[in-house]
Amino acid sequence: MRYFLLLCFSLSLFNCEQSHPEKLKKGMWRAILETQDNEVLPFNFEVINDTLLTVFNAEEQIKVDEIIFYNDSITIKPPVFEGYIKAKLIDAETIEGLFIIEELDRSVPFKAVFGNSSRFETSKDANINVQGNWETTFSPDSLEDLYKSKGVFKQEGNTVTGTFRTTTGDYRFLEGVIEGNTMKLSAFDGAHAFLFTAQVTDSTMSGTFYSGNHYKEPFIAKRNAKFELANADSLTFLKPGFDALAFSFPDHKGNMVSLSDKQFKDKVVVVQLMGTWCPNCLDESKYFVEYLKSHKSEDITFIGLAFEYSKTEDKAFQNIERLKTRLGIPYPILLAQYGSTDKEAAQEKLPMLNHVLSYPTAIYVDKKGKVRKIHTGFNGPATGASYDEYKTEFESFISELLNE
After folding, report:
1. pTM across the whole model
2. What pLDDT, on the 0 to 100 scale, is given for residue 22?
3. How many Å apart are CA 91 and CA 332, to the nearest integer?
4. What is the pLDDT of residues 285-303, one digit of tens each?
5. Whether 159 and 274 share a structural domain
6. How many domains does the chain have?
């Protein structure tokens, strides 16, 4: 019913009275998404031409080349992910509509205005400098939902960039401001829309994390230069009595693929538990593609196991093939699960694991078929030094396995 109402709203919003489409003005735009508690989640994009725009999140630049004009409406579809913006051109400098993820039955009100390159509007200077490391606790009052994180920030004047690292990944390239004692950070990439707001002192933070308009949770933080997260190589492991990984899942042609197949014999194999909807998985996949381009070896192969929320097998494979095409992924990605990304259900498909804690998770298998290491989560380029350390450790460990 909810999606039917959304469809009705969309049809009424995007009428077809005009015989020729309007075009967006070239230059910088400021967009906002409506979250909860009357907060808005802003981001900026630059219109390059009628078929290309760039979304900005701190150092991240997302090129969007799927832009469709139809009479007085426009569809903007960021690369890889399912989410898209469907909006009406009010005039050449204003568009209004929705950010939609159909398979999750979600929609968020959207508006964008031309000529404003500010992300957050500010009227006063920062009273606090948040640069540095922050020991962060999300959902601190809930034993069931509580989890730890490491906030890592840089600040110049009012402007703040950085991210929150967790044991399952990071919250991408966050960008925002400090105004007085109030910090606001946001990110939008076509899959997730994140907003963090907090009241800050020299040594503490107290705030709220919003994901779109469907979820929010509190967080607290304190300065702690020495705080570190648990070792990502220690969180997921094989249960006692197991030393190997076993599975059999279909590829896009319906062929069942297993680690025991001839193509994996006597090779180092990196098994990637992932989803096409997952930004941290996207970052990991980009790195794996980069690694394979610069390290030519017939003795190593990668294989992805996709856990998709798409309601049908066909749609799940469409998303997998779109991801592979967009990133130039040369290795197979099998469909391990569709209709849900539930981690308990995922673990049932891989019963030798103690649990599936995160998408992504990388499982390293040596030439004899033995699991040698399992790395939970992925801290991508938004984490700076942590990302560089990961790449160095990855290449060193793979080199060790290849030389055995």
Report:
1. 0.91
2. 60
3. 45
4. 999 999 999 998 889 999 9
5. no
6. 3
